[in-house]
Design brief:
There is one protein chain. The protein is of the alpha/beta class and 336 residues long. The chain has eleven helices and 14 strands. A six-stranded mixed β-sheet has the order 7-8-9-10-11-12, sandwiched between helices. Strand 8, helix 5 and strand 9 form a beta-alpha-beta unit. Helix 1 packs across helix 8, helix 8 packs antiparallel against helix 9 and helix 9 packs across helix 10. The longest helix is centred in the C-terminal third of the chain and has 16 residues. It is globular and about 55 Å long. The two termini are 38 Å apart.
């Protein structure tokens, strides 16, 4: 979607002007992965309007392959307006204008499986499932078990404003349980399923090989199955990594950035601790920038920070501009 960012803090009724940007969970992840040096393709639909032109041009400028994006001559590109308050607080407001949008017309008929079949990872989110019955059918199709299926990553991304029929808990649970890797925040898990306890969430979602639970500015953890889906599963391996301290400019987009960091580590074959730390670092890049998207740290720098000892990691204090502030020592990033 095209995103309109507020010119100043406060409720939407008091914001006099907005700046145009781009947003959308899946495109955010694709752009961040491409900026981090990975090959990424974004699959979607946009209108044949100027907003659609802007989206395609901007996403492509990040290095994302947009060849699978289709233009819809009958439906507009979705847009939304938001405040700059943290999404987890009552002060946050967001207004979506995407009922009947081009993206809401995605379906198994308009997005053939062949479009995504060659990927190493297929990243989906619960937002798409909320857009229409056809979109829900598409996600059900893409998460179906089949030989040679890409690793399916599913970010729950529960947006209450998009679910008015009360079906979110069961629909999102079913889709998540069909994925290989699931990311969920403790706040949305509590809203959806009445618990944020990792063990209870694992019992609710036994299907994924890996379950990532994010606890805001505090920690992130991953529960990973110790045996493959065709072998008897042993107990999960639990890895917990605290989040670094961050001077927050805007809280929006951090979840998508975390997903991109974790997926980047997955593509590179990194261990669980490194994957979680790269997720935290990508999230910190988004948190210290005003829009939904931010330039990620250079890979060499991120690798150095992810390899810090526990004490040095615990002293990290990341503020605006940290991703481009030189490449000196391993502990150069504001450890005050």
């Amino acid at each position: 979607m095209v995103t309109f960012l507020p010119s100043r803090p406060g409720p939407l009724a008091d914001v006099p002007a907005f700046t145009r940007a781009i947003g959308g969970a899946e495109s955010n992840v694709a752009c961040t992965l491409a900026a981090a040096g990975h090959r990424a393709r974004w699959v979607s639909r946009v209108g044949t309007d100027g907003f659609g032109d802007h989206l395609l041009d901007t996403v492509a400028a990040y290095g994302v392959d947009t060849g699978a994006v289709r233009r819809d001559p009958h439906r507009p590109t979705g847009v939304y307006f938001r405040t700059d308050a943290d999404r987890a607080t009552d002060a946050h407001e967001v207004v979506y204008y995407r009922a009947g949008s081009a993206a809401s017309a995605m379906s198994p008929a308009t997005v053939p499986y062949a479009t995504v079949a060659g990927a190493r990872i297929l990243h989906l989110t619960g937002i798409t499932a909320a857009l229409s019955a056809d979109c829900r059918a598409l996600l059900h199709e893409l998460t179906a078990p089949r030989p040679g299926r890409p690793l399916v990553s599913f970010d729950v991304n529960h947006r209450p404003a998009l679910w008015r029929d009360g079906t979110a808990p069961e629909v999102l649970r079913e889709l998540a349980d069909r994925a290989d890797l699931v990311l969920v925040g403790t706040d949305e898990a509590e809203r959806l399923w009445g618990t944020a306890d990792p063990a209870a969430l694992r019992a609710l979602l036994p299907g994924p090989a890996a379950l990532v639970v994010k606890d805001g500015a505090r920690t992130a953890l991953v529960l990973e199955r110790t045996a493959g889906p065709e072998a008897p599963a042993g107990p999960d391996v639990l890895t917990v990594v605290p989040a670094p301290r961050v001077e927050v400019v805007s809280a929006v987009g951090a979840g998508d950035a975390f997903a991109a960091g974790f997926l980047s580590g997955t593509l590179r074959g990194l261990d669980a601790r490194a994957r979680l730390r790269h997720g935290h670092l990508m999230a910190a890049a988004a948190l210290t920038a005003p829009g939904d998207l931010a330039a990620p740290p250079r890979r060499a720098r991120a690798d150095r920070l992810a390899a810090l000892g526990a004490d040095a990691w615990g002293r990290l204090h990341l503020g605006p501009g940290w991703t481009s502030a030189g490449t000196e020592a391993d502990e150069e990033v504001r450890t005050r």
